[in-house]
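=== Structure Prediction Worksheet ===
Name of assembly: unnamed complex
Input type: mixed (protein and possibly other molecules)
Chain count: two
Listed entries:
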Amino acid sequence: MSIATIPWQSRAFAIEIDDGIAVLTLDVPDESVNTLGAAVVDEFTALLDRIEGDTGIRAMVFISGKPENFIAGADIGQFTVITSASEGEALSRSGQAVMDRIERMRTPMVAAIHGACLGGGLEMALASAYRIATDHPKTVLALPEVTLGVIPGAGGTQRLPRTVGLRNALDMILTGRNVRGKKALRMGLIDELVHPAILRDVAVDRARSLADGKIARSSRKRRRRGLADFALEGNPLGRRVVFNKAHAGVIEKTHGHYPAPFAAIEAIRAGYDQGSERGFAEEARLFGEMSVTEVCRQLIYLFFATTALKKDNGVGVPVDSLPVDKLGVLGAGFMGAGIASVAAGRGTVVRLKDADTARVARGLASVYGVLREQLVKKRITPRELDDQMSLVGGTIDYSGFQNVDLVVEAVFEELGLKQQVLREAEEVIPGDAIYASNTSTIPITRIAEASKRPEQVLGMHFFSPVHRMPLLEVIVTRTTTAVVTATAVAYGKKLGKHVIVVNDGPGFYTTRTLAAFMNEAGHLLDEGVAIEALDKALVDFGFPVGPITLMDEVGLDVGAKVGQVLLEAFGERLSPAASLARVVAAGRVGRKGGKGFYLYDSPGGKKRGVDQSVYELLPTGANRVDVPVAEMQQRCVLAMVNEAARCLEEGILRSERDGDVGAVFGIGFPPFRGGPFRYVKTAGANNIVRQLELYHTRFAPRFVPARALVEMAEKGRGKVEPV
Amino acid sequence: MATYGTNGRRAAIVAGLRTPFARAGTDFSSIAAQDLGRTVVAELLQRTAIDGDEIDSVVFGTVVPSVLAPNIAREVALLPMLPKGIPAYTVSRACASANQAITDAADQIVLGHANVVIAGGAESLSNVPILHSRRFSETLVRASKAKSTGARVKTLARTRPRDLVPITPAIAEPSTGETMGESAEKMAKLNHIARDEQDQFALRSHRLAAAGTQDGRLAAEMMPFYVPPRYEIVETRDNGVRTDTSLEALQALKPVFDRRYGTVTAGNSSPLTDGAAAVLIMSAERAAALGYEPIAYIRSYAYAALDPGEQLLQAPVLAAPVALRRAGLSLRDIDLVEMHEAFAAQVLSNLEGFESREWAARAGFSQPVGEVDRSRLNVMGGSIAIGHPFGATGARITMTLAHELKRRGGQFGLMTVCAAGGMGFAMVLEAA
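=== Predicted Assembly ===
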């Protein structure tokens, strides 16, 4: 009996052989998605050995047994144990070897792709002789390695440009962007696009045609190229233009904080300039180099932190969350409309209330704007846009609130108003409905004082703009029940957010730490530093915008109000700077008013330069003082980090992980620094405490080191632990 | 007399809603009928908080169907908050289409085939399909079947400029070629309805509609309509209702259909209108089980028809006595009458017909329906002022009658609707 007729046994693979075609179905046991861990790769190479030795087998099909996932990529855990660049290089080399083998094997392989095909999964598909993907929305192809601080290490930087051309490859590799079926077909990333129901059959048929020599391996086909391809990719001069542009683009986007995109460009360039062999060698070398960078470690830390959060129900004990089928939103302003738009985007029925039809109309227009953006990006169809829009019903009374499951109140930040709105709503909403306030500062406990059912009240602090900002801070009081918290957390996740749960307190976690940071920026202004120099210093540190620009964005009146709340709560440690108060007193409110520290084209318009006349309002007047860039950075960042540590010791935060995720995804803490707690560990807690003490002597009562930091330093927890 | 439906299976109107009505070519001109329908039903679902799983069927009426979405009811039923498994169909009975939707729904409930139905109608007269000429359509079809590019070009080259003149569907009777306005003009002459009477009636329609809007009774039937995609316009009332019109202004208008001896003007006719309306109908039993309080029950209804070449819009006169008999009632028992106002001339002709022995005999009755007390007729105006989106009007009138009956503490209400093709409809509602 020929071996080819016997089904093989394997842990992760099912193998069926049909008329000389081996169908390898990958279904990694006990996991929701397939990843290419070391064990899976070992099994796979063993399979290849057997197939190679079996003359009865003429071709192979690689397909996934998961319902909506092909291969999610390499096992990220592997990256964390790399201790040196040469170890990383070796890992890359071994990955390359597997792909190389697939490409060269006697038996051509067809990749039959349904679901996400990412990283190593796509690299394997690229090494295959033929690629077929399904025209299903879950089928996406991407090389997201740079988002984790590394580069594709199993031939991706070499095979992708060869397959789709230089510009397409650079775009995919430098952004990690998802490419869907239709576009993949258009750019030549796949050879065919089929309905999921016939994927396997077509793949087997194509494998047979490959074996019979009726169709060529796709790597041997010539890519169809247009005029622009010849001009920009077909010659060294054109390519240099493309590479330079890509380089400039990366600098503009990352301010040079992330080395991986540059490394990826270098690896791709090596393949073009020095040939394929050098290209692969460079890819492996650069992968190794990247895998041990600080940036890579922090990004991987955040990857694991957010992955862990996805599995965290927010209450620490198993609780079933309740379904949220209908959402009431009180206040159709920018925040309310933003919340309505993401909810409708996820299929929730939304009742959007405001005081008059004009406000409701503006709210609906803004919901439509967000949803239309999805249409323009081809993420939804026109009918889906209509459907999502029809889920949002505007109202000026409480009609339609009698069956809401969750209410999110997003009215003006004023305790009295919020309490009044809560009382009104509770008259109408079902007794078991959950009531959330979207406030950034007002203690939830105070709002809940107005409630007949305070155990059903909590905070859901979204960030603006809601559809782009990935964080949701859920704030619970002493009386909020576990099921209420778990429901808010589960619904936040459904909306696609990273959800952290914090305990109630003035400014909760994010506002409080951000306020400490902004406050210190204000003190620097008091001392006389130049506005743009201060902003630039913090942007250089890695924040998306500088603190003064941010203050203008948030609104100076709002900032002053927050400052007052925190001063009352925490005393002189957070005493507001004089600058902000003076500028607000002069009637400047920031961008929304067209005038703040900066000038704007119009209220809410484009930023122009610093308004030089604003200096006259500041304590030092027209005199500017030079403070070293490092000191400006340290003071602002230390103020933030120190406040984060206090949130931990006071029990506002549940964990350092939540603190890191909250700061990175909510208030723009540089991701490549991992978050405030990782920042402390990277720098060493003892060093941080020493710096704080130094500044304390100069600026008391500010900069008293948080007890949590002192303890960390004493325990010697200064070193970064492996993630 | 047996009531329509045994006690538990009586068809109850538990809620209704409509868009404001907008004259065609104004604020709703860019919105397709299906979107008007979907919007009003989405809001009805929001306000009534009805669980989509409870709904058994969706029936919608429309008169000028979209070529792209001919079964508008299904597009409504496919709203994302409803389960996909609700069967839906579209009906067409000219201006009584929404009435057909409602009586179909009621029948299914009475029969026990359904317990909860959404019935209504939608019309966008701003978006009527424009057709190619027959010759040009044939050319296009032939060109699409041509075997070569050369043959295709040759076929298309035969097109003559006059072939490109588009055909706009007129509101005309296919059987007689008479337009609706011409029919109304003819009825005015046959029944000796003077111009002044018509203008007085139109004025009354506007004044009463304006009052009903002012005091919130009409507004209560409507949702504010936020006009996509810019959402800058919010329609909160019917934009055809004139608060400032006068008899002089109406008298100044020129007759449209017979410029020399005519009496029917744009002022005493209902305008072309965009809008949608829907009602939620349940069996009395299910309404009680779900905790909905019925506004009114459907007590009886009747359809009738006559030769379109005769008096096109006079068939309500034939339908009303039948509906009353089926209800076991006479006009004396009726607290409110709502008549669709296609034209003042038509309403006045219908009212005359109700009093006529001759028309009674034609309907098979020895006694006429009787004289309608004008103080109980169209007490918040009618289609002349409010507007007339063909497919939606029937649902609008049903709701107006049900609400006003309840408001006034009346017991029975009669409504009539005239329809193209020489058809008429009448229905009796009983306050819950």
